[in-house]
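User: Please predict the structure of the protein below. I'd like the answer in structure-token form so I can feed it into my own downstream comparison script.

Assistant: Understood. Taking the following sequence of 423 residues as input:
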Amino acid sequence: MKITEWMKKIFNSLSEGILIIDKDENILFFNKAYSRLLGENLDDKRLPIRNICPESVIQNVMETGVPKIGVLCEESNEEYFCNIFPINSEKKAIEGIFIVTFLSDDIYLNKKIKKLERENKYLMEKIHCTNGTKYTFENIIAVNDASMLTKNIAQKIAHSDVPVLIEGECGSGKEVYAQSIHNESERSKYPFVAVNCSTLTPTMLEGELFGYEDGVFTAGKKGRKIGLIERANQGTIFLDNIYEMDYSLQTKLLRVLQEGSIRKVGGIKEIDIDVRIICACNVDLMKYTEEGKFRKDLYYRIAAFPIHIAPLRERREDIPYLLEFYLQKLSNRLKRKISLTDKVKALLYNYDWPGNVREMKNILEFTYVIAKDGVIREENLPKAIIENSEEIELRICNLPDKIKKIEREEISKAIEYFGDTVD
């Protein structure tokens, strides 16, 4: 078969890929559109097709002489459709194959969507790096009904601008929820500032939150300071362990919510502030309010939309998915595959997780370090998990005896009440 220069010019002007091979399956010609599938630097155009497309359907057409239309193919990570036609001589013998490749609208749009998704993910990661966060709702695993309800409520609240109170035990993921709410809101491109109210004295916390003017402190701290609330302007400030905040400082925080302004320590000027306040605690804040340890008016301002994160022991359905999620993250970070034996999966599922998700992450990292071949086995687990399993087994073993004891007690009560004769 002879391919003239005129024919080559025509083929190269097409957006569809063109490939022509001879009866021995050597490549005679491919146009520019098809070159991306074979490689830009391919010099030997007479390379057998099997060396380039080992799983191609081309051989089938060569053997049968029957055209194939709309075949979905994938070469070099490129997905496309192709129409494959036999080239017959005057004697109807097959001399070669003529292939036309093209992208369908669906594939083209899908490629565009995936590209935009990658770009969007990259931009969101850049935003999260600059706004002080690293979590979104994608990082929250919710399979249990209560977990899904909590997540759905948080996603809806995120689009409003009201204060939020997040309640949950230590390690349950309160800041993960706070960051996710921020990143889902219209404030996502502005700062997210987190403050732990339990780590500072009342005086230090006041200075950190509201800032101070020069000369307020006689020693140690010199000059003016911008407070964290002001730094979070237009964004979100997250106050963890809010119940530890001094009562007098609660009054200043209430003013921020009511008036939208702050006054620095030692200052006289009111500074307008536009900030969303998300609070969190691991105690019953309502009980603190009833005991006079927390201002009622502040409580009702921040608890208009409370979010309760259930402990892991109350949402065991989430545990396998959380284990898989954090193992995958750990594998990606350490560039090594990590897995659990079935026995370990069962032990972790039945463990009560007093430290919740934080404890789970720490245990997985700890066990990985001492595990062999990237497989976490029973002997790698902390003592507390093994003892918990033994306690469960003991309770199960003693269950028949307990049932018999209860039955005897109930029979004795019945005899005492009704007598030991049957009329």
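That's the full token string. The first helix runs from residue 5 to 12.
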